[in-house]
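Work Package 3 committed the consortium to producing structural models of liganded targets before the mid-term review. Because experimental data for this complex are still outstanding, the team generated a predictive model from sequence and the ligand definition alone, so that downstream docking and mutagenesis planning could proceed in parallel. The input record is reproduced below exactly as it was submitted to the modelling pipeline, together with the SMILES string for 2-acetamido-2-deoxy-beta-D-glucopyranose.
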Amino acid sequence: MKLSITYSLLCKLLILQYLSAQCLSAQDFDFFYFIQQWPGAYCDSNQSCCYPITPILPAEFNIYGLRPTKNDGSTPLNCDIHSVFDKSKISDLIENLELNWPSLRCPQLKSIKLWSHEWMKHGTCSESKLTQHDYFQTALKLKKKLNIIQILENAGIEPDDKFYDTSSILDAIQQATGFLPGIVCNRDPGLKSQLLKVYMCVDTSGSNFIECPGVPMGSCGDTVQFSKFWVNLFC
Ligand SMILES: *[C@@H]1O[C@H](CO)[C@@H](O)[C@H](O)[C@H]1NC(C)=O
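The resulting structure, written out as tokens with the ligand in place, is given here.
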């Protein structure tokens, strides 16, 4: 009798220890990178882009990713291989996601495949804070809060294929949000540097922008082209 009680207690302790270790590893990130992408620049490159005819993509930055990150800049990946992406859990968000978190890759990739990939690779690393539904809803809320095209246009920076000082783009976003973003550029087929991605940092709850411990730097020159908005249909 005594032995079996001790044994069951030991089991419980082991289970508790296992669970807390799981929680600790799942919580192991310090902030999110919230990354938005300019479709005009993604499409204006040698890799080109592929997008379905409907829904019509708005002329806005779209969501590129919501990535749990550590203060040293490293990115935990694939944190829960037992998780299963479940479309039914985000059925209320699909329409919104189609417009705001599309796949632009060629050959055309179904958006649902992109979301599943993003959840498994990145989302599961914030599972201790956000459920699958929360994760996608959080990204959509952040996108709504951070309307980059509006911010830039208010500062006279428009997607007109012209070149702008990189510092004026950073300043405009910092003025509007209170936080310095990171920006990443790609090159058009003629090798011109163009604004592709904007990085902002968000606390682990997913609700507040914060000062970034560090941002990607160096892929843009002193001036960058803000390419016109277009996407390639029918491919
Ligand atoms: C795109 O392709 C052209 C032709 O092959 C090449 O000259 C150019 O360097 C490529 N641009 C980039 C950014 O790789």
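Reviewers should note the following from the model. Residues 93 and 213 are 31 Å apart (CA to CA). These observations will guide the Year 2 experiments.
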